[in-house]
């Protein structure tokens, strides 16, 4: 297998020493081969159990519209059996067609797709492929906390790139890269970053959706500095904009994007249905990791999803996503109205353009951690302190993440009312402390 893509990228640069040692398991390769073998082919190679020993006769799933998805016979056998590491072949074909329809990536022939147990699984395995201990890694700041916990064991130098209402700021990214370049050339002992992690649509925790112009700028910078783009787009079908956001995968003429798609937010989080798309050479290395880690992602979930797509078609699937989007948009609107009522003049925020969260800046409180985790919990309200999402979580932070996805509308209004009371009480406490300090100085 060539390590260099047709666009000239040396993909071995993005594969860590440990990941580069991975080799295919012969038994897994034979399983892959058997799925495409002629019907008359006889195999005594697989160590698969015989389906006749499974106690399941059928699995019937009643849908909310009254229809039924039914798995039985050979389809049920497939759902309960080992499959190739890459995924259930009929579903893989559908998802490749779906990806082409939605994103139309350039140079599709140079890319591949693989199923993962949720996008967290794909993100984790990709980072473990790319990152060496002590590496510098570019991240949006604030960032999804699940990425930070994957990186932490590698003792990385996390370089947080600040954001505005359009996403990460290009000039900040260039400054960070130029600083890294200067430090590297001076023999500082640190390598240039190889990857940037981005959550471009309905970002967790900010709710920001990166504009097309901003995506184009960021992509051009990554091409110039040879940076791999890790596009975590779990909320791509939960944007609240009139036009569909254009993905980094759609812009990727060079083959430097690994994209993570997930059904957790729009279909079911418990099914752990997700897939990643990227350059074939890099997807192949991730496949080797999955071979050694769990053989393959859940077959039952994949067959259920394949059955659902067959029943609904892509248009039906997109229609469901549209319903989910309207549902969350209405909840967002209610939440913002509650914040206008209870938090006006003591907080500020940007109205989320996607996702499930609003990112709140508290005025007059330099650090919200104790306020939320001590006095807030006593009021029976729980918000996430912004520290959890910062590239440097040890620094004081005046931001709060609030989710509008699950609590009832009545609960959301009450929580915002109590948060407003909590912040005003905090202001009073801080004022008393300041008065006490001044009195001590005067004495």
UniProtKB/TrEMBL annotation:
Keywords: Aminotransferase, Pyridoxal phosphate, Transferase. GO terms for molecular function: kynurenine-oxoglutarate transaminase activity; pyridoxal phosphate binding. Residues 77-416 form the Aminotransferase class I/classII large domain. Pfam families: Aminotran_1_2 (PF00155). Its cofactor is pyridoxal 5'-phosphate. InterPro entries: Aminotransferase_I/II_large, Class-I_PLP-dep_aminotransf, PyrdxlP-dep_Trfase, PyrdxlP-dep_Trfase_major. It comes from Dendroctonus ponderosae (Mountain pine beetle). It comes from the Eukaryota. This is Aminotransferase class I/classII large domain-containing protein. One of its GO terms (biological process) is alpha-amino acid metabolic process.
């Amino acid at each position: 297998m060539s390590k260099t893509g047709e666009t000239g990228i040396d993909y071995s640069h993005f594969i860590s020493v440990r990941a580069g040692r991975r080799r295919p398991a012969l038994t897994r390769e034979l399983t892959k081969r058997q799925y495409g073998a002629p019907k008359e082919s006889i195999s005594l190679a697989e160590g698969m159990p015989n389906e006749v020993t499974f106690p399941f006769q059928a699995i019937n799933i009643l849908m909310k519209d009254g229809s039924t998805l039914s798995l039985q016979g050979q389809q049920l056998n497939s759902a309960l059996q080992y499959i190739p590491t890459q995924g259930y072949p009929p579903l893989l074909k559908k998802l490749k067609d779906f990806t082409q329809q939605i994103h139309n990536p350039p140079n599709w022939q140079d890319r591949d797709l693989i199923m993962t147990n949720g996008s967290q699984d794909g993100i984790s395995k990709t980072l473990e492929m790319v990152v060496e201990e002590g590496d510098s890694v570019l991240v949006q700041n604030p960032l999804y906390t699940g990425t930070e916990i994957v990186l932490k064991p590698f003792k990385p130098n996390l370089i947080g790139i600040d954001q505005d209402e359009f996403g990460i700021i290009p000039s900040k990214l260039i400054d960070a890269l130029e600083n890294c370049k200067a430090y590297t050339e001076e023999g500082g002992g640190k390598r240039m970053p190889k990857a940037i992690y981005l959550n471009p649509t309905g970002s967790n925790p900010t709710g920001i959706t990166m504009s097309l112009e901003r995506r184009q700028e960021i992509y051009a910078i990554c091409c110039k500095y040879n940076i791999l783009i890790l596009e975590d787009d779990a909320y791509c079908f939960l944007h609240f904009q009139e036009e569909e956001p254009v993905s980094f995968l759609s812009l990727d003429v060079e083959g430097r994007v690994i994209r993570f798609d997930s059904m957790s937010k729009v279909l079911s989080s418990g099914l752990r249905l997700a897939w990643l798309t990227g350059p074939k050479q890099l997807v192949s290395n991730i496949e080797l990791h999955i071979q050694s880690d769990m053989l393959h992602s859940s077959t039952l979930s994949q067959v259920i999803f394949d059955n659902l797509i067959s029943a609904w078609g892509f248009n039906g699937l997109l229609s469901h996503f549209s319903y989910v989007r309207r549902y969350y948009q209405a909840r967002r609107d209610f939440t913002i109205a509650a914040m206008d009522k209870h938090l006006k003049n003591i907080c500020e925020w940007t109205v989320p353009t996607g996702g499930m969260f609003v990112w709140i800046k508290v005025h007059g409180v330099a650090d919200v951690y104790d306020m939320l985790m001590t006095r807030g919990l006593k009021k029976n309200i729980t918000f996430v302190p912004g520290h959890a999402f910062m590239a440097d979580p040890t620094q004081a932070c005046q931001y709060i993440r609030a989710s509008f996805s699950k609590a009832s509308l009545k609960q959301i209004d009450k929580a915002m009312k109590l948060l407003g009371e909590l912040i005003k009480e905090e202001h009073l406490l801080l004022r008393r402390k300041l008065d006490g300090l001044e009195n001590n100085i005067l004495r």
